[in-house]
Amino acid sequence: MATPENTMTLDTTKGKVVIEMRPDLAPGHVARIKELVKSGFYDGIVFHRVIDGFMAQTGCPHGTGTGGSGQKLKAEFNKEPHVRGTVSMARAQNPDSGDSQFFICFDDATFLDNQYTVWGKVIEGMENVDKIKRGEPVSNPDKIIKASMGA
Question: What is the 3-state secondary structure (H, E, C) of 86-124?
């Protein structure tokens, strides 16, 4: 059951997306995401890497996939599968390199299981995620207008 303190709303250029955060799976990641949301970090950030049939990635302040908040997170890999609506942390080659970038799966991506930290799932607005403009990089990308805690 999603509670307001573990629910994040993304108001995007394609509509509202509500994510149930899962501190039971990744307490460190959820705590850090909440800090970033409350500080306004995600407001105005684009979906810079969007691959049809795979995922939409966001959370880079540069809009290129090269940046973050400057605080690396220790991996919290878990048994939660990467399926449609899964929200998981992006990272570089080092497992403990997750920072502020995350992605939402369009479809099953179980080849990522146990290699990326799942910390949430979309519980409302997946149809809006489906509308996000594709590209790698994306030309004139969609973005998060405002991220907030609560549904």
Answer: EEEECCCCCHHHECCCEEEECCCCHHHCCCCCEEEEEEE
pLDDT tens track for 106-142? 999 999 999 999 999 999 999 999 999 999 999 999 9
Please state the domain extents for the chain: 4-149
CATH architecture of 4-149: Beta Barrel (2.40)
Q: What is the spatial distance between Cα 112 and Cα 79, in angstroms, rounded to a whole number?
A: 11
Non-local (6+) Cβ contacts of 66 within 8 A are 60
Q: Which residue has the tokens 């059951």?
A: 1
pLDDT of res. 61: 97
3-state secondary structure of 58: strand
Q: Which helix (H) or strand (E) holds 130?
A: helix 126-130
pLDDT at 28 over 90: yes
CA atoms within 13 A on the CB side of 67: 12
